[in-house]
Amino acid sequence: MIPGARLIILGRQGAGKGTQCVRLSRHYVVPHISTGDMLRAAVREGTELGLAAQKIMDKGGLVGDDIMVGLVDERLQRLDAASRGYILDGFPRTVEQAKSLDGITTDRPIHVVIDLDVPREVVVARISARRVCRDCGTNYTATGREKQPWICEVCGGDVMQRDDDTPDAVHRRLDLYEEQTAPLIQFYGDDGRLVVVDGTQTTDQVFGALTEVIERSRR
Ligand code: AMP
Fold this sequence. Notes:
three-stranded antiparallel beta sheet; five-stranded parallel beta sheet; binds adenosine monophosphate; 8 strands; alpha/beta; 219 residues; 10 helices; Rossmann fold
């Protein structure tokens, strides 16, 4: 058990962060806070934020730092995150966001930042086959033999391809990752919070490596 653990999982889109975060969140019973899922929920609900975010997300761009920091700040103050800890997925995505996160977590700092490392060529292939439950966020890999409509085996929701998983948007997101998010590896490396995990292993091996890092960080 890791009561109160506060983690960030970094990595290219398609590195398997979502799948691993869902599994870690069940294993440790800590909230999985995915900013992408929060934005997709806002898009579905048709809120003002959702309408603005959708245009940016469909093109593979990044939503403004102030909006994202505000969303995360609010979420981290909820009782579950404050008492159980949390796993942050998709945030921070820029050095500015990381600095703001340090500012809003001075009382309870992040314990460990894990970079789930998968090379670009590998993630492009993975993302084309990625399908996601629109309700609970469980990730699946399409083989082309699935029954349609595809129903999530965890919650019964619809399993679909994300609107932003088109080839153009995928390449734009990966370019943005190199420009905006990769500098976080140095940012967290410099202060000793970063651990790199090889994300090209099987999902079980990656999960084993992640739990080992998390438990080591809490000893
Ligand atoms: P994800 O599910 O993490 O791949 O996020 C999907 C999309 O949501 C991204 O391509 C961005 O457009 C937007 N997004 C999610 N998290 C952030 C963030 N921390 N900062 C800016 N935009 C974000």
